Amino acid sequence: HDSDAFNRWQAAQTLAMKSLTALTAAARADKPLRPSPRFAKAMAQLIADDRIDPAFRALMLSLPSELAIALAIGSDVDPSAIHIARSAFRKSLGRALKSELERLYESCAIMGDYSPDAESAGQRSLRNAALSLLAAAGGRADITRLREHYVNATNMTDAMAAFLAISEVEAPARVKVLNAFYKRWKNDALVLDKWFSVQAMSATHGTAATVEELTHHPQFSWQNPNRLRAVIGAFAMNNPVNFNAMDGSGYKFVADAVLEVNAFNPQMAARLLTSFEMWRMLEKERQDAAHAQLERIAAAKDLSRDVYEIVTKML
User: For residue range 92-141, what is the model confidence (pLDDT) as tens digits?
Assistant: First the structure.
């Protein structure tokens, strides 16, 4: 049965990728986005099958990432179109599977104390996957559920699931949860890194300005490698739509960071620079903007060997 479920999931993922690449082309051509209902029907059957392990059903609810879609397209990539297409697909899926997802969310609630065993972990994963997809539907009740999930969370797994999902929502509840998370964890360096990184990875409008503000936060330090990864690294590596902004602002921001960090942490600077490694796959305007920043880095004085080797190879 597990083998059969895996084969069905693989077939569904292939269908999802075909739909996502078609939707990306439609978004780029400014045409209406009409996600196929076939994937939702396949998912409804899979996630309703209680014989399948909960952790695997949680995985089934995930879609190919924006990076995976870009790699499937291969060339002349438009990250904004990919993001629009994937967001529309998730919204459509969340609405089409609303009743199934709500059933999963309620049935996977765990009463009693937290337990790290595999069965409980699987149930949490499935419940949080359902929560995330319901949030993508964007209804008022879905946003309310997100905030309540965060408020009622008794463990970091559940709290982070709500925090990640609400970071993609442009609603007053988002700010309230951000502030509550910071107040609760501001004295725990490792958890606070998550607070920084979740904001830096958000695909919402205005994230670039938020990341710039975060570099001036009292708890941010350019000399702290973990905090650098949580802010600059998270933005450069895990926020394709904002890093690849059409106006080139994301490239300039990261290039500025590379040049600054190069002076005292060449290895970190080189790591940040690798966020440009797919620049040749992009469409022409973004290619030119990224290329200009790579040329600027290459021409800078006192480049470390680490940064120099990477930037010259990229060029």
Answer: 999 999 999 999 999 998 887 888 888 899 999 999 999 999 999 988 89
Backbone angles phi, psi at 259, to 5 degrees: -65, -35
Closest CA to 104 of 57, 164, 169: 57
- Tell me the pLDDT tens digit for each residue of 193-219: 999 999 999 999 889 999 999 999 999
Distance between CA 257 and CA 286 in Å, rounded?
A: 19
* CB neighbour list of residue 291: distance below 8 Å, 6 or more residues apart: 279, 315
Distance CA 247, CA 285 (A): 9
- Residue length of the chain: 315
The whole-angstrom separation of Cα 104 and Cα 48 is 8
User: Is a pLDDT exceeding 90 seen at residue 82?
Assistant: yes
- Which residue type sits at 40? A
Q: Is the dihedral of CA 148, 151, 154, 155 positive or negative?
A: positive
Structure tokens at 108: 């996977």
Residue with tokens 């309540």: 148
**Are 299 and 255 in contact, with CB atoms under 8 Å apart?**
no
DSSP string, 110-170: --SS---SHHHHHHHHHHHHHHHHHHHH--HHHHHHHHHHHHH--SHHHHHHHHHHHTT--
Instruction: Give the span between the Cα atoms of 291 and 262, in whole angstroms.
Output: 19
